[in-house]
Design a protein that fits this description.
binds glutathione, 5-stranded mixed sheet, alpha+beta, single chain, Glutaredoxin, 9 helices, Glutathione S-transferase Yfyf (Class Pi), Chain A, domain 2, about 200 residues
Length: about 200
């Protein structure tokens, strides 16, 4: 498999998932500004939507959309325990988390990288995110990971998005539970490995 990624972008989530699952893969860095892969390929020809992540399977098929990609990865090695069994009630809970991170956190947090964002727009985004994080913090109180005791692909995604807070100067001090969560996930050997491979950690 080939993961098309950009350093520190939401593609970090499937990158972590691939490492945690112990699957063989290669990385292909994408310059998102010019939509070019480091191999010289036109990234738009790989993913017409022009954004990462994209996962090219060994049969050539390309899978896009982070929540779908990480579930695919988890299902390639169920023994790694990164997602509950397909069809189980817990699997729907995992999907609930992935959708929450995608629609309620990813896009808001991601918008703060946009240079065109006005101060007013930024404040409005922060206010909405603040409400979501208030709720999220309560859910994570007293449990190490979103699904409970076990790390799942939803944690790979949440870590990736919360980790942007420092980059966009969104202070998480109001949510010590979330800061502890970030620190806990950051200590996982495979998370460190992914961060190092993307040049985000020495
Ligand atoms: N709906 C997509 C969104 C992916 C996304 O937002 N990718 C960003 C990086 S985090 C990107 O590649 N942006 C560049 C662009 O849209 O041109 C998903 O969930 O996978």
């Amino acid at each position: 498999m080939k993961l098309f990624y950009a350093a520190g972008a939401c593609s970090l989530s499937p990158h972590i998932a691939l490492l945690e699952a112990g699957l063989p893969f290669s990385l292909q860095k994408v310059d998102l500004k010019v939509k070019q892969v480091e191999s010289g390929e036109d990234f738009n020809a790989i993913n017409g939507k022009g954004y990462v992540p994209a996962l090219q399977l060994d049969n050539g098929q390309v899978l896009t959309e982070g929540p779908a990609i990480v579930q695919y990865i988890a299902d390639q090695n169920p023994a790694a325990g990164l997602a509950p069994a397909v069809g189980s009630p817990e699997r729907y809970k995992l999907q609930e988390w992935l959708n929450f991170v995608s629609s309620e956190l990813h896009k808001g947090m991601g918008s703060m990288f946009n240079q065109a964002q006005t101060p007013e727009w930024k404040e409005a985004v922060k206010a909405t995110l603040g409400k979501r994080l208030d709720w999220l913090s309560k859910q994570l109180q007293g449990k190490p990971y979103l699904m409970g005791e076990k790390f799942s692909v939803a944690d790979a995604y949440l870590f990736t998005v919360l980790n942007w807070a420092g980059m966009v100067k969104f202070d998480l001090a109001r949510w010590p539970v979330l800061r502890d969560y970030l620190a806990r996930v950051a200590q996982r050997p495979k998370v460190k490995e992914a961060l190092k491979a993307e040049g985000l950690l020495q």
